[in-house]
Amino acid sequence: MQRGFSLTTSMAFAVLIALICGLTLNGLLQLQTLGSQIRTVLEIHNRKIDLITKIQVAAHLRTDSLFRMALANDPFEHDAYFHEFNRAGFLVGSGRNLLRQMGLSAAEQRSFDTQTRLVNDIESVQKQVIDLLNAERSADARRVLVQEAIPLQEAFNQQLADMRNLYQQVNLTAQQQAQQTYQNTFLFTLALGIAAVVLALLIARHTLRGARLRSQLIREQMGELERSRAALREEATHDPLTGLANRRLFYDRLHQAIRHAHRYGGKVGILYVDLDRFKDINDRLGHHVGDTVLTEVAKRLTTNIRDSDSVARLGGDEFVMLLEAVQGRQDCLAAARKIEQSLNGETSFYGLDVEIAASIGHALYPDDGTDEDALIRAADAAMYRVKSGSESAQQHRLPFQ
Ligand SMILES: Nc1nc2c(ncn2[C@@H]2O[C@H](COP(=O)(O)OP(=O)(O)OP(=O)(O)O)[C@@H](O)[C@H]2O)c(=O)[nH]1
């Protein structure tokens, strides 16, 4: 499941990265196209339009200076106009050269060729006018100018105007294309951007859900671990039948109580409780009744001591009790008496009358021993003395030792 989750997330991330790359690449390409279109519009076409205007002005100046030559009487004035005529001719020629060098489309080339033919025609008429002027036939020269040169000049102007319109039209088209490119880029970027954001949100949701599931699983596993640790702890320190502390835990508690008493100079009492003729109960009434008797004894032992004291089952029908902060033997005997009274007597289990009795011996720290083993042994021995005393008295209980 974990592998599948990571694979799906990785694939989604790969798609997201591809989307972002596509978005960036597309944006860059479209911007480049847009840039080149704008460059075409602003730089090339505007320069061409500029050149055409200059050619137009120079051509007009050339015809105009020819006219002035035809009207001028002063030879110096005549020369000055002739000089202007030549300079204008040079400007027309160089402008046209520049225009051609900038590169022409098929439509531009067609218009340029027409202009070339007109320029040739104009030049031949202008040459004719200059010849007439040199022959001092000004009236004929003016007539040729009006009848032939000016119509040709107007036709040339029209061609240039057409060419300028052509550029303006191309400019407009490029502008529209740029606008279209901008719109396409905007829509494409918007669509991809939305897709990328939606995908990112889906990935985030997926990842968060996975993380939540994982942390829930970890919490459950930790809870289970804690429960099994507690069960193990319970098992290691408690008797499974009665739920009382077992020998190990009792030794621990006794050890602590001895250390405490040793340090503060107190006493610790131990009661060793062994049921009488418990084997008979098992044999006569069955093991299950025996178990119930043991559980009932554990309950009675627990309810008849102080909260600060503790009870443990050592095994079989043997129990021990730890009495903390006792003043002396009298306290132990009083506790033993109380226990004995709570146990003695007939009780009904599974509808069967069972007589419970116990022999109880006691030991006192530090009087009967200074460590756990010595104290338990002493209490056990005391219990045996009580038991053998009660047996020799044929079921009659003797006072506790
Ligand atoms: N039902 C039950 N019986 C147990 C358990 N543990 C030990 N026993 C039995 O308890 C009995 C203890 O027998 P004994 O040690 O002879 O004790 P008793 O019959 O009380 O003898 P005295 O102490 O001499 O009076 C044996 O029959 C064990 O099998 C247990 O957990 N449940």
UniProtKB/TrEMBL annotation:
SMART domains: GGDEF. This is GGDEF domain-containing protein. Pfam families: 4HB_MCP_1, GGDEF. One of its GO terms (molecular function) is catalytic activity. Keywords: Membrane, Transmembrane, Transmembrane helix. Gene3D superfamilies: 3.30.70.270. It comes from the Bacteria. The lineage of its organism: Bacteria, Pseudomonadati, Pseudomonadota, Betaproteobacteria, Nitrosomonadales. Coiled coil: none annotated. The chain crosses the membrane at residues 185-204. Residues 266-401 form the GGDEF domain.
